[in-house]
Specification:
alpha/beta, Rossmann fold, seven-stranded parallel β-sheet, 44% helix, globular, binds guanosine-5'-diphosphate-alpha-D-mannose
Length: 377
């Protein structure tokens, strides 16, 4: 039997001819080139079904605050397949609502072989690297752990990518804390400002930033660094300032706490963005940013922490006393962080869209509805 040839005239026909003159089993008669063509079709169809033609996006830190909001944002998009990593003891309250829509892998980024296995299996086209020890005070009580998690975790990730021989776009989530001791005449802070870190956490973020830069320069790894200024919103753990105050206020509303709010340094000035705007920025950084570059993501508005407390109190309409808790004061607190995100806006068209008042309102609402799992967070 003679089979039609799917390939242009000349290509592959020779095999059909050979098979005509010498009777062969079915496979020879069918023709090499036709067989290859059919195999390719089967492969393409299978891959299409399993998301092979989709962009594979890996989020490290997906169980956390920004990571879970980023997943929410990406799950709205077509043609993306989202992968996440967790450790066996990771908390799951932030991911319960999308756990079935994401492919999860057990991985600890501090373990090089675990990270390598992950990257070899997922072979991502895009990586958002958000996993980190992110609370500044913890970096004083556990500096080695903060440096190991943040710097070694990133090193393992970059090495795994390099050794696997893939070249995905990688966002490295840096921080405004890297700027540290900013002088009065350096505000609003541009990406070109000197980095003068004031905590082990900030040092770890400078390390991450520089490591990413070095991989870009040395190996052409397509890294885009973002320096996110403060961000907050629903799901923010209660150790961070806005969430800390909002949770205390809600506990007072519920009558489970005396009407006294414990605070730290109310004089510090920070530049806040809603987390939902921030993660949209992360996506734009990889979609429209340039590998090797670094971008500030911020609102450009500086707010005194004391003023944020007053806003929350007036939004909730509670009567409270304020008491300074010595334990909340830091060995050195960055006095003022106000950013300039002109470079990022120009590159990506990003603009924050959620007002700070709405962010605080949503945060209060989050704590009012929070389940037990969050309350201990
Ligand atoms: N947490 C907390 N609790 N902070 C307080 C309090 C309080 O009761 N009272 C005053 N503060 C002051 C802190 O001293 C600091 O100056 C400011 O509020 C913000 O503190 P955090 O919310 O803990 O955030 P951060 O600025 O130290 O770091 C956050 O933002 C960075 C980006 O600039 C974290 O999210 C970092 O991971 C992130 O990189």
């Amino acid at each position: 039997m003679d089979f039609p040839c799917f390939l242009p005239k000349g290509l592959g026909q020779g095999h059909n001819k050979i098979s005509k003159s010498r009777p062969h089993p079915f496979i020879w008669n069918f023709g090499y080139w036709n067989l290859i063509f059919v195999c390719y079709l089967v492969f393409a169809i299978c891959n299409f079904k399993e998301g092979g033609v989709m962009t594979r996006v890996l989020i490290t830190g997906i169980t956390g605050f920004a990571g879970s909001h980023l997943a929410d944002y990406l799950l709205e998009k077509k043609d993306l397949k989202v992968y996440g990593i967790k450790r066996w003891r990771s908390r799951t309250e932030n991911i319960e609502h999308f756990i079935d829509k994401i492919e999860f892998y057990e991985c600890d980024l501090r373990d090089a072989s675990s990270t390598r296995d992950l990257i070899e299996v997922v072979r991502p086209n895009m990586i958002f690297h958000l996993a980190a020890q992110s609370f500044v005070p913890t970096s004083w009580s556990a500096p080695a752990e903060s440096l190991e998690t943040n710097i070694m975790g990133e090193l393992n990730l970059l090495e795994a990518v390099r050794r696997t021989g893939i070249n995905p776009l990688i966002q490295i989530a840096g921080s405004s804390e890297e700027y540290g001791a900013v002088k009065e005449n350096e505000v609003p802070i541009k990406e070109t400002n000197p980095l003068r870190p004031l905590s082990p956490y900030a040092v770890s973020k400078v390390g991450q930033d520089m490591l990413a830069y070095q991989y870009f320069k040395s190996y052409g790894t397509r890294v885009i660094r973002t320096r996110g200024f403060n961000h907050t919103g629903p799901r923010r753990p209660s150790v961070f300032v806005c969430s800390d105050f909002a949770k205390q206020i809600v506990d007072i509303e519920k009558g489970i706490k005396k009407p006294v709010i414990e605070v730290g340094n109310l004089e510090a000035i920070r530049d806040f963005t809603d987390v939902r705007d921030m993660v949209r920025g992360y996506w734009l950084a990889l979609s429209k940013g340039t590998p090797g570059e670094v971008y500030n993501i911020c609102s450009g508005t500086g707010r005194k922490i004391g003023d944020i407390l007053s806003m929350l109190i007036s939004l909730a309409g509670v009567k409270v006393d304020i008491r300074v808790d010595e334990h909340k004061l830091r060995p050195s607190d960055v006095p003022r962080l106000i950013g300039d995100s002109t470079k990022f806006k120009t590159a990506t068209g990003w603009e924050p869209s959620i007002s700070f008042e709405k962010t605080l309102q949503d945060l209060l609402e989050f704590w009012r509805k929070a389940q037990k799992a969050y309350k201990s967070g």
